[in-house]
Write a structure and sequence with these properties.
The complex is a heterodimer of chains A (about 400) and B (about 425).
Chain A lengths: L4 H4 L2 H11 L1 H10 L4 E5 L5 H6 L3 E4 L9 H6 L6 H13 L6 E5 L3 H16 L7 E5 L8 H22 L5 H22 L11 H12 L3 H15 L8 E7 L6 H8 L2 E6 L18 H11 L9 H15 L3 E7 L9 H12 L3 E7 L6 H20 L1
Parallel strand pairs in A: 1-2, 1-3, 3-4, 5-6, 5-7, 7-8
Chain B lengths: L16 H22 L5 E3 L5 H6 L4 E3 H10 L3 H10 L8 H11 L16 E4 L4 H14 L2 E4 L26 H22 L5 H27 L7 H13 L4 H19 L10 E6 L9 H9 L1 E6 H8 L10 H9 L2 H6 L3 H12 L4 E7 L9 H10 L4 E6 L9 H21 L1
Helix pairs in contact in B: 1-9, 1-10, 3-5, 4-5, 5-6, 7-13, 8-10, 8-12, 9-10, 15-16
The chains are: A alpha/beta (about 400), B alpha/beta (about 425).
Amino acid sequence: MAIRNEALSCSAFAKLKAAYDDRKAVLSGWKAGGKKVVCIAGYDVPEEIILAADMLPFRVTGYYGGARKSAEKYLEYSFGAIWKGLWESIAEDYAGLMDYLVFSSSSDMFLKLYYYFRTMQRLEPERPLPELKYLDFELVEHVFKTQERNERELRDLIETVEGWSGNRVSPDALREAIALCNEYRDVLTEFSALRGKDNCRVTGSEALVVIGGSMFMERHEAIDLVRAVTEAAKGWKKAEGVRVYYVGSPQETTEVYELAEANGVNIVGEDHDMGARMFDTQVRTSIEPVSALAERLLNRMPSSEKGSIAARVKAIGEKLEETGADGFLTYMNNNDEAYVWDYPSIRKNVLEPRGIPSVTVQKQTWPLTEPETLAAQMRELAAMGKEAHHG
Amino acid sequence: MAEEKKAYETRSIKRLEATKTASAYQKEWFKSLKPRVEAGEPFALVGADAPMEILRAMDIPFVVYQWWTAICAAKQMNTQMYGYIRDAGYRDDICSYCSTAYACALDPHPEEGPWGGLPKPSILITQSECAVMGKIENLMAEAFGAEQYTMQRYYEPVITDKWWEKTIEHWDQLANERRRAFFERELRDLIAFLEQKTGRMFDMNRLREIMDYVNEQDYWYRKTRDLIAETKPCPVTISDTVNAVMQAQWQRGTKWATEHAKSLYEEVKFRVDNNMPAVPNERIRLMWIGRGLWFNLGFYNYFEEKYGAAFIWSMYLGLAADAYGRENYESDPLKALGTRFSMITDFLHTPPFNSEWFLKEARHNQVDGVVLLTSENCMNNGDFYYNMVKTLEDNGFPVCLLRADPADAKKWNQETMTAAVEDLIVNRIEPKLKK
């Protein structure tokens, strides 16, 4: 099973897929259209602030068009596939297209890349790099001083984007942007209900396309298209495959999900930000907007990299209930393996009591060097999941 | 646990009394620690970045868990330790530098560890520098039954050229007011936590005494570093200094550590004054960037004998000399301390702070080449080696990159690593010297 014909023949899906497949074209189009664009590297940069300044947020993802020569030259081996891809996009593929780039502390690697690019501006001043900004949020410790700190970072960002855009970010503009982004997250949540246990109408790879594609377009258009796909997908055939929850390295393309589907696994939920985690928490509208944005940062599902083991165990338990998964997949890129320290606790406290089988895939690279081995692991998971489901 | 016999000599030549006395002192200190902990005194396991001076001011004994890794490695115990991690369902081939103490918690015979084993900590203080470290610390705290306290980090970037010229006298220029205030608050929160947990009251005057000791200790380290840098042939090598400095740094801020630092200087000075070179046939001076090769400090000696190549610089003495001292702290000791414990990572691992300092040290120490050890299985590994290598090589210092695990001997390939350093010496340094 791959992305199915009924999805491909849906015009809204096709538009989302076009954006998903050619992100650079979107960025180029925006730039050519004279809109000011703020590029984002990180999973916690609030788009609301950028929209409130009348600028467009553009999520920078990895380069998947071929060899990542620049990353291989400049980065050490400890940077996994995602980070090398991101470097290649920023340093080469999107060179000259980005004016501003905001990193957030969603992963330690974003901090490193921020420092590296800042140093590159000194090393190679002729290289067309964007203006850089780093948002140093605390995302783990749920205490008042964290809220204060994160609010301060957000106010800094407001000041920065005001300088970039020449527009003041008024509280009203911010509220309006929050309402828009909440609506966007709402429609994605409604769409994701179609990955649910009793009425699974979309495959994991189709979901990635819809969620991911919607990131690379203006919010109003994204909302309309996701709504249209949701309506259409209600009539699609039920998605087959053993229902599996995914944790680990973000999947920026559908390759791994499609490989899973071809081998009997349908990923019905994930903890990464190219999938369901991206829209998992709303911004409260009844309080001061900057406070509300800061609050959301702490209310999100604890990320696989940063979350404490106890928090992850709790969150994974909830997600397994929510998605009704019959299998659990941990997928780690080489040197992107913080999750390995969670797994035994998750297995003991969450998977074993529920009888949910699991497979852990490690040391993955891009391009995939051993797809046959990966396919065999997926088949194994599918077989175990089927047995657990029927047993 | 018996020490494993290797096909090659893993122990280094120890030329200095200061190295022996540091080891002996640590061993005795450790022995005295166990009954205190068993009697119910608080005992903290801390990350290398933790503000140890606060603990010392409250008379709370502590062990730095990365340094414990070094001790276990030197005793050739780590491979066995990582086996306990594997048996518990974790990977035994990653994050070794930060996971040894966790392995000790899983050891069925902890008393057989170095120096009678790591006592069970009641407190774990960390400043999670990387995400993986945070998770390992969660596991450690659970396994030991210790309460975990994590200090927040803050990376507000301030480009500071020549940071080493500001650390000691002008530390207030290292970070902006926001960052200084942030870390002061972190220290105050830590103090409040420790007071509540232990019932001991923090004493600012005691901290002042400790900071005075630290300043004096680091004054002697600066003098020692400068003496080594300026003396050809070199009176001592890193086989002599890494242990002498690291173990005394563990006791930083005590009278003993200060006197030890002074004795180290005097011993090195004696060797200089009496023309006692560490490597009489010294022709080449090398810099070792990265963690110490704890399980195989003898590695360095091979090149002395064969090529007259002396490893004379490591970060342990260099950083002690340039990064720790804080003078003029009297009005605000916590702010001064804050600029230190929060910035070591910047100095060592963040470009361009790290590369500029390494270049300054390479020049000062008159080295001919650099060996850069990159910790192979560290998820947080990444100091922008491209930039480091380019900065050093563009300025005439050829660099050899070694990928290895400094904590676990099982993957070490003596032959390959020796060949890599020999290649640097024979093919890159020697031709240059002949010109």
